[in-house]
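Entry for the shared binder. Reason: the reviewer on the internal report wants the predicted structure included alongside the sequence.
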Amino acid sequence: MSETVSTDSVVVAARDQVSSDLGGEVAILDLNVGVYYGLDEVGARVWELIQEPRVVRDVRGILLEEYDVAPERCERDLIELLERLAEEGLIELRDEPPA
């Protein structure tokens, strides 16, 4: 089942995983299935930002401040990454806005 992520979605890293910083990149172990995933520098920054529930548009805003990227590309790539992480069960989509 495909998870649909929008700029209004609230996302957070799932509980059943552990992750480790590997010099700017991140390795994530899904404890449910014992599979490792890797994220590059930008993916690692997104992962860091979603350790607490956060609205996708807020993540996009932070990335636009920190990286030299066109807003349309940033949003497209961010949503694609988050949808893949959701499909793998590494993040949760929530209905409520973060506190």
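Summary line for the report: The chain has a mean pLDDT of 92.
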